[in-house]
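Amino Acid Chain and Its Fold in Token Form
===========================================
Purpose: to set a sequence beside its fold so the mapping can be learned.
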Amino acid sequence: AASITTVAGLYQEAQALEKTGNLTEAAAKLEDLLVLDKLYKPAAAALERIQAEINTQSFQTEMNSLLKAIDNKDLASARRSLASLKSLGINQDQIDQAGKLLAEEEELVFISTHRQIADGQREAEQWQQALTTYTTILAVAPDALFAVNGRTETTKRSELDSALSDAISSPHRLQDEKQRTAAAQLLAYAKQVNPAGPRLKSQIDTLEILITKAGTPVTIILESDNETDITIYHVGRIGAFFSKQINLKPGSYTVVGSKIGYRDVRKTIEIGPDESANRFFIRCEEPI
């Protein structure tokens, strides 16, 4: 067993360290003492008191660090300080309040960061991406008015962008009069949109050219044998000829040829806006 002198000496050293504010060293001395004599009650009481004071000081230090980190928007450091506070196991009400402050600041930073992202996406006319960003913000802050308005606007712009891209990517559909009319209405709407960035302006210019081409008659060349009587549905009878130039709008046409003693011939021709490709041959060749 440890001698009374040794135990008393350690206790006195611990007391001296406590008085000078060296609490960690004092606690270490008391822990050493209790290893030698675990029944020495003054040491146990002193260790409990000193450890409580150490925890109180640590708590205040970490709380100050946490609040400073929040003020500086250093959220990673703030989260580390909050974790340290929780590990101390004291002043839970204050920890909960600090955690609430941190959560509020995290939300504000999240909203601010994503608002900047959305602004950049709008500037780049990335409407679908901006819509996704606003939706993400609203999942965290449903009452954020700028995000509510942003989602409404970017929904419309995203739909317009998709409609314009679809019309431009399938110019052959503009050969249909109904499709061309719908595209013209879309174009008129797009021209009213403000602000119009470079992408929208380019889409408007491109679609306008495509609509104009699709509605402008082009010269086609029909070739035959001068014996086959040619009719183009919804255009009229052309007659017999070796070669004939006809002006037609781009689109799909059914051409029928008739010749006495021969089976009628029927051909569907696709007329595009490029005149050089619009040359077709039709004649009756199968005797009856």
